[in-house]
Design a protein that fits this description.
Strand order of the largest sheet: 1-2-5-3-4
CATH topology: Protein-Tyrosine Phosphatase, Chain A
CATH architecture: Alpha-Beta Complex
Distance between the termini: 14 Å
Oligomer: single chain
Strand content: 15-25%
Mean pLDDT: 80
Structural class: alpha/beta
Amino acid sequence: MKEFLRSLHPLLPQKGINASRSAVINGRTPIQWVLPNQLAIGRLPTMALYEPLVQANIQVILSLCAPAEGMLPEIIQHSFECVRYILPDSTYIYPLTVEQLTIAVELVHQTFRQKSQCIYIVWRG
């Protein structure tokens, strides 16, 4: 899983690029676009990220984290379509499988195909 996420790093915009639609929190843009204005990744949203998510026109939040890593604030749960598909990380006994990763990618693909919505993927609690 870590290798997959690291492979996405070169796709992330450099500081300041595509940040115009996102608020800056603590001197950095909290939403990292993989596909500008379509697919973003980041940490588990907190109340501080609510407005940036709205401003970025995010409609779907796909969490790849277990509930033990943190829960979405209630306002975020009610304001966005929230989906959870748990991918194991280094703390799990069983490693991530190709099948699990395929399902996660298919969830993203189906959301784009069926709804053409902007997605925020939570990859870390």
